[in-house]
Amino acid sequence: RAAHYLNLSEIETDRQSEIGSDIARGLSYVLARQVWIDWSDLSSRPDALIEVPSDADPRAGQPRRNILIATLETEGQTYDIRLARYKSPEQPAIWLFTPQSVDNVDALHAAFGPHPYEDEIPQVLKRKLAGLWLWEWIAIPLLLVGLAALGYATHQTTLRLARRSQRKSLQKGIERSSMPLAILVMAGATQLLVTYVLSFSGPVQAFLRPALIILMVWGGGMTALRILDAVLNRITLRFVGKIDDKRGRDEREFYASIYALRRLIILLMVGLALLIVLVQLKFFDSVGLTLLASAGVLTVVFGIAGQAVPGNILAARQIAFAKPVRIGDSVRFEGNWAY
User: Fold this and answer.
1) Segments in the chain forming alpha helices (H)
2) Contact (CB, 8 A) for 205 and 262
3) Are residues 16 and 48 in contact, defined by beta-carbon separation less than 8 angstroms?
4) What is the helix (H) or strand (E) element at residue 73, kind and residue range?
5) pLDDT tens string 2-58
6) Which residues are within 8 A (CB) of 207 and not within 5 positions of it... i.e. 6 or more apart?
7) Residues linked to residue 337 through DSSP beta bridges, in sequence order
8) The pTM is what?
9) CA distance 226 to 170
10) 24 within 8 A of 106, measured Cβ to Cβ
């Protein structure tokens, strides 16, 4: 029965009844695992006309012939799943999944279909409860417990390795990176699980996918940043030592430059991490046109809100290069002497 909701016009007529149900089943697997759809949001009108006027949607008040259900990406290729309205001379208009959507099912099912391990799940646990399969209500708590144990083991192992280090600066850097490294391992293990072992349903994937991206980027970035910070601190202690006003001008300038370099690296890594997250979450695809349309307003808003940030960055660069003051200088501030 589900095959009748597919437009199979590009498949030979004698094969439609043979493979139609298989294509419908494959599409059902993909939708259930990768797309979180509230079907009640679709228009109940036969012409799918958007009745409520909206400035954000220029199609308001116009009948629609094509509706995008989801866009999925695999192996660098993007695939659309769409519904389209068709009408024959003697029949009322009907909505079917488009021929292109039907043609995309094989590739999407190969990438997002059920994994072989799911065949071992009892059929009774594949029923839905509150939007999720029954086995998910069992697997998710077990997964959280297992990930917590993995994170704790990673954290403790990292601390043990740090204690074996002969250099205190490196030891401190490894100790500080133990927590982000544990989070990175936990997120990576979850990603491997959902890629090769189990495919969760659409609602779980909708939350899990962005959460894993954010955690992996944050964990990897913080781990690298804290190790690099330990290296810079080691360089400072080796060539400068403890800073005070007794140190020479060149040493204090070197210390100020190292500190400025550290701040610049932090800024670049935060910006890079934010860009990676936005690209992976397809942020620019979803809101790019909206941003362009409202660029004038956004320019004013960000210009006002962000004056302090670029101002501080430029001031820090100027101080780092011109060095009118250096770390370790004696200064008199509000009647008090300080370094």
Assistant:
1) 13-34, 99-112, 134-164, 168-176, 178-196, 202-239, 249-280, 283-293, 295-305, 308-322
2) no
3) no
4) strand 66-74
5) 899 999 988 888 888 888 999 999 998 888 888 887 777 777 778 887 766 655 556
6) none
7) 332
8) 0.65
9) 10
10) no
